[in-house]
Structures
1.
Amino acid sequence: MHLAAYVPGDGDSAGWGGGQGAGSVVGFASFARLARTAERGLFDFLLLGEGPRLPEPVTVLNALAAVTERIGLAATVDATSGEPYELARGSATLDHLSGGRAGLHVMASDAALTGDNLRRGRFLDRAERYPRAAELVQVARELWDSWTPDGVSRPFAHRGRHFDIAGEFGVPRAPQGHPVVIQSGGLGDLEGLGETWDFASVSVSASASGADVVLSRHLSLDSGRVFYADVKGRLAQYGRAPGALKIMPEVTFVLGGTHAEARERAVEVRRRRVSPEYAILALERIWGTDLSSYDPDGPLPDFDPVPEGGSDLARRQVAERWRALSRAKGLSIRQTVVEASGRPSLVGTPGSVAGTLDTLVREKAADGFVLVPYPAADGLDEFVDRVVPLLQERGAFRTEYEGATLRSHLGLGEPVWTG
Amino acid sequence: MSSTHGRGLLHLAAAVDQHVAGGPALFDVDSYVEAVRLAERGGLDFVTLGDSFARPGPDALGVLARVAPVTARIGLVPTVTTTHTEPFHVQAAVATLDWVSGGRAGWQLDVSATEAEARLFGRRPAEPGDELWREAGEVADVAARLWDSRDAVAGRFGGRDKPQHVDFQGAAFSVKGPSGLPRPPQGHPVRVVDATEGQARQTAARYADVALVRAVSAAQAGAVRDELRVAAKDLGRDPDGLRVLASLVVDLGGGEYAAAPGHGGGGPRPSAHGPLYRGGPVDLAELITAWHTSGLVDGFHLVPAEPRRDLERLVNGTVALLQHRSLFRTFYPGRTLREHLGLTRPANQYAGPVATGGDAA
């Protein structure tokens, strides 16, 4: 079983417990604490999200490389605004500085939500998000491969639909060959806000792109097994072994001494995950207008999202879904945002949670799990102290790190140099 | 802390690039860590690490982020280019370096003017340096606005009750804002600009906290310093908010005392890599003392010709002697790079008269 800890960029879980001073939101001490806890728990990697409320992930991970020794360090990058040269260089630098522990989580955000801050503006049609992300990863691989394993740099040239670049790459081949590529199973920014995941296209693109890890949200035994079989079944046609792509569902968890206690805590955690400020922010990203005068504990806006081009249809659909949810259950803005941000959750005693995770792996519904702790800084302690030992007793999880690189933790081979 | 006559505290910085000019760059993290720790033992204000898409080398901001947790006081100033990068991403990365270092971040702005660099990105053709330096100034401007846009001091955002859109419209880009991150520990991480040439000097006068001047004599450095201060004043800045450091390549391999002819008393000599001082650490201390006490510079940025050897001689020879003579600090009284440089924490430009102006906790 493989385990990772994740601080996602799409939610208020970036708030490290909510409502604390500015320092605690982005302060390095909180990240260092989480990274050390995850390493104490022998986790495969720590994944940092890219989002409006999080510090720049690659910079934080470079710093975390100084206070950890073994754990993998994976950064989320926005494939919609990212340029391959810079992205390949930043992640290869992280791989060098961390001794082969870098990972790259490619996420195709909606340009309509971020474009106002970028040189190219809202340049990308919705339909082009995935093709651009795929080409971005492909070009990054060409750059990583442009140095021979013997340390000789050779010129590269790539001309494709989204990128037309040439020259020499400035970083010698990284310790892992290629940093581990993690593909989001979702559709970017909107996914946490109630958008349906596109099952088939995720499965196809993850298999075809050569991704090493794919994140999913299939935590039930049935849907997990279907997704797992589908993805693994496709690998052979791309010449890949079943073990070459790890399937890791994202999951939140709440533990308790008894099931009743765990359920009680889960209610409280769900409420605190979304602060009043974040609830309004989440709403503004869908409605595309200033909603600061709205009461987070009051009803949703009764008008449609303001048209901005690009993702208008998707935003209108999300707004309709949210309003329907609010009407059906009588939910406030904040309650609706809580209800809609749907990562699957495990609630129970350490024993029951360990049993569920073990079963999911044994039954081929997952290769491991990406845990989203709450609060981010110290919410993982309980899992590491109480669940990991039970997984180890079951023989389901490692009792020590065997290798030094993220690829070795995940049991992945070094990519073949295709120079 | 007036430095009107250049007689304020002496400020010293050193480059920690781990390659000799023209040689291959190093990716070995330990050599960077050792170099920065050594500079910190000497009490230097900050280290610089160069970066360019035009030649091989690691991402400098990434390297100094890696160094931050294993150092405590010294300022960390990577080169960050502004031509082919996203201004919004640049400010986020620099702000993040300030957060992970506890207020020790700076950034040396630079441009990418070559056709080869343009082809690595394929988004815009190569442009004249002057245009690019004007744009670099806009990037510095918008970065400061974004850092001010979410200032949650005492629960207020820049003195108002919500984050500010910055609505910046530059010649080549626009940014709506606000930033998602709280204001960095220093308010604005320190902006460093090499002001030796052309439009870069105008950009420095307007936006830099620290200007570097590659000069072969104190008089030459002093003339640029005067020009920068006058220009800064004309732009409505307090000239005392600008530190001007002479930037020299130092080759300390040549003996204990004597500077090579023309390198000591006569000033450094021009070389392909900038003004070059060649001689012993003691003579370099004399040169630093003479230039600084003449009131023509606020300090020095020293670039070791041979990274390991010359940084070691600089710190253990030159700096130790300056400390012995009470001309340079022996410990860090402050925690942030701004404090080392004697620069105040900038006021928030969005703060109204009701704002407290206090530091973030």
2.
Amino acid sequence: MKVVSSNTVADALLLYIPRLATILPHDVFDELVAARDRETHERARIVLDQLVKNAQIADADRVPICQDTGSVWVCLEVGPDVAINGNVFSKVDDAVGDAYRNAKLRKSMVHDALFDRTNTETNAPAFCEIHFSPTPGVARLHIMLKGGGSDNASRVVMLTPNAGKQGVIDTVLQCVKEKAANACPPLVVGVGVGSTFDKVGGMAKRALMRPLNKPTEDPQVRAFEQELLEAINATGIGAGALGGDTTALGVRVATAPCHIAALPVAVNMGCSAMRRVTVEL
Amino acid sequence: MNYKDITLPLSKVDARSLRAGEACRLTGPLFTLRDAGHQRLLEELGKSTVLPYGLSGQLIFYAGPTPEKAGRPFGAIGPTTASRMDFATPTLLSRGLTGTIGKGVRSEEVRQACIDYSSVYFVATGGAAALLAQHVESCETLAYDDLGTEALRKITVRDFPVFVGIDTLGQCIYSLDE
């Protein structure tokens, strides 16, 4: 039986946090290049060209893509036949501290949101969760470095069922129109629809893990993602929100069952530095 | 698009010549400060009309950089969301700050203060922090060192690329009708 231990998780973080902070995932980089090459708006082209060059500089010099090197999110996904060896997250915060110090990343965490806003000086704690997969043999770690500006631009709305698909579209577009300028566009937009108030935000966040270069399997979801992407780009907000053709590089939607009275919707904004990786353990 | 080359500190004559949407390259001193630092600065300022730390006539860049790397003062430095500092900006502009650099839309109060005090809000590209760090030549921590990345720093930039976000007429880059 495959076993996941705290050392396995910590070792993955030590290896991948510095890489994520400095190397933009290929799918995001390719979309940025494509957006730059087709951009017709002058200022947006300057912004997209800066973002492409920025990613190249960060990669070559091993410096952070963005000064906001994020909060750390860790999601362990395991199948029915994989054993979890106790508290597999017990060494995560030490690993985060070591990774951020050694790679000279920014420490952006405070001790308590309300009562103690002094910096923890380590970028710990990380936010950790476990998800159980129905697929045998699955043992993978999802890691995301999430910037504060884009997370601040996110929201959860509890719609009524009759609001339907149009209600979801309106919610996403309203969020983009109000907040895109703060979220460093071109965006990657994660959308969760369904479940309950507390779960829907997590669905939107996990949707951001799905690569932009791999088509969504479910044809209904794929079509809805395309519809949302076209609507977002039709706003003309553009790169840097300075006007342009590409406001979002991609949209990823996750749906789930929900109560007969409910239509929960969450929008988790991802910035142009969408730093995430899925590691097979 | 042509860049306007601007020498810092920004003179009021230069400030009044700028128009929202123009691309500029800034060369000279900037001061970095963000959320917690603004609360400190306002407390320290109190009712005084004189800005401390030589901020009078200067630009504040809303940024919390990463540590030095690759032989540069910072590995990465870029703008943070400016609207979080809207609570402090009109006061600072009224006491002699010339302008600010950040990203995103400002409040109506900040737009009005740009008109009232002939001040400018510049926007830099969010997420271009490795590129922007190449334009920073030096760095000195002036105050609030205990805030870590949020400390008040004086930095020197060369050909630092920005757009005019709000000009002295109150025109805004995010609502230009083109």
